[in-house]
Amino acid sequence: MAAADKKSTYTAAEVAALENTIQTQQSQIQAQQAQIEELKRKLDHMNEVFANAQRARFGQSSEQKNYVLGKDQLSLFNEAEEAQDHKTEEPTPDTVLIAAHERKKKRSQAEMLNHLPEEEVLLELPEEQLSCGKCGGKMKPIGKKFLRHEMQIIPKQVKLLAYYAVTYACDNCEKATGFAHIASVKPPVPLMKHSLASPSTVAYIMTQKYVDGLPLARQEKIWAREGISLSRATMANWVIQCSQTWLKPLYKHMKQELLTHSVIHADETVVQVLKEDNKPATSESRMWLYASAALLRHQVRIFEYQPDRSGKRPESFLRGFTGCLVTDGYTGYNQVQNVTHCGCWAHARRKWREAMPDGATVKTSKAAVGFQYCNKLFVEERKCASYQPKYRHEHRQNRELPILEEYYAWLKTVHPEKGSKLEEAVRYSLNQKQQLMAYLDNGEVPISNNLAENAIRPFTLGRKNWLFCDTPKGAETSAIVYSLVESAKANGIEPFAYLQHILVQLPYLGKTHSHEELESLMPWSPYIQQNFAMKNSNAYTNTYLN
User: Fold this and answer.
1) CA 361 to CA 368: how far, in whole Å?
2) Given 3-state DSSP classes, what are the helix, strand and coil percentages for the chain, each rounded to the nearest 5?
3) Running DSSP on this structure, what letter comes out for residue 282?
């Protein structure tokens, strides 16, 4: 009662003052909490900057990295860039590979080598050791025991082909009239007039450079060891002339085929061209790559050289295409009209990965949470990778759409430090939301643009060896040859055999070609598939998710 009486003695002004004090203190607490959160964001940002600096200075140059995301991290499904190096074991028939829910036995050593001609090597005793050690009689062979297999390499042989046209005369005409009717064989059309270049030689040089990444300067030295003086200038001339004269019609035909597809991937990379009009030698040009989706019928890879990265380049190349265009988020692709723009979740995931500090977990890092959301999508994609497009679309709507809705709701709760990698990851997913969600509506569209990145990689690896192109014509030639060999590889065709075949056939066809003639020389044609398939058809295969 006394307490009640004491409480009642407070005046209204005192109560108001106390309430005001409480409100002020609560505001101060909230401000301090906000300040703490801000300091934590700044600390995370500084740790991120420090970690990135350490990785840049001491880390591996590749994108490989291990992350700790907790027991539910789903690290099994990290993208290809994070694959670790493992020692390759000798294959056994019991070893299996798992891809798209299909179990394929790894080929045994015998299976891998059964296409090679086998030569028997008999290890025999010399004549002086054929005397019996007990009775002195002569010993005779009674059998043989297998010991082992070895592969023997026979260096390439270079021949000089001398063509002679046999001349024929009619005896009857000569006897009847005194003048013989003369006929001779029509000579084959050479690749180049007054040149030693043959289809096999040019195909070999092209394969060495554009498939194996061996620059012409290095090839020149190899030829010299064979006792043949073949300069890099001569080889460059052969490659350029044959490409422009004979291969370009195939290149254009492939492009027209690509534009009929429903899904196209696109990517681009830097190429330096020294002698380019109105540009310094140190300036950067671009090699663009356009590729058909892995799930579509004919696999096409088209490279196109252009002097810049302007969005008008893909707009011009893809004019008339009305399907789905899968890209990495570069805004220049937005100039392409009348297409459905589809984003790349591998790039979105990569942004989160770059924002993750060392040792990050879903409990300590928002970047790890974003990374895990992306991984969940890739897990679901692997489940439906072998489905028909209709059922893949249903799977995505039922299983992946809820993940994406939860993901974008969570993004609104993330308030990263300005200028941080975390902010970059958040901004990428928000800015690309429409493009990143587009794959849900079409079962033919892949979840990432990794196929294009894989397809353009041979060019980037080759560039490390030959560094630059001398002229725009050389860059255009590189685009043509890369298009043919990469399309061949994507269709399971051996590049050298394919190049040699088309360089034999095209001169006979002349410089004007029908649609049927060009189609018969495409790497997906039945004849090419039957006669020039690679011994190991998985050697260059691009998988659906990689």
Assistant:
1) 6
2) 50, 10, 40
3) T
Among 538, 480, 530, smallest CA distance to 240 is for 480
DSSP 441: G
Confirm if 180 and 170 have CB atoms less than 8 A apart. Answer: yes
Q: Are strands 301-306 and 324-326 parallel, antiparallel or unpaired?
A: unpaired
Task: Return the H-helix or E-strand segment holding 153.
Answer: none
For residue 117 the two structure tokens come to 């001609």
Query: Which of 465-479 are b and which e, b meaning 16 or more Cβ less than 10 Å from the residue's Cβ?
Result: ebeebeebbbbbbbb
Q: Is the pLDDT of residue 420 over 80?
A: yes
- From the list 503, 512, 457, the residue with the least C-alpha distance to 198 is 503
Per-residue model confidence as pLDDT tens digits over 428-465: 999 999 999 999 999 999 999 999 888 888 877 766 66
pLDDT (tens digit, 9 = 90+) per residue, 146-158?
A: 887 777 777 778 8
pLDDT > 60? residue 105: no
What is the predicted pLDDT for the residue at 79? 30
- For residues 215 and 466, the answer to whether their CB atoms sit within 8 Å is yes
User: What is the C-alpha to C-alpha distance for residues 64 and 61, in angstroms, rounded to an integer?
Assistant: 8
Phi and psi (nearest 5°) for 18? -65, -45
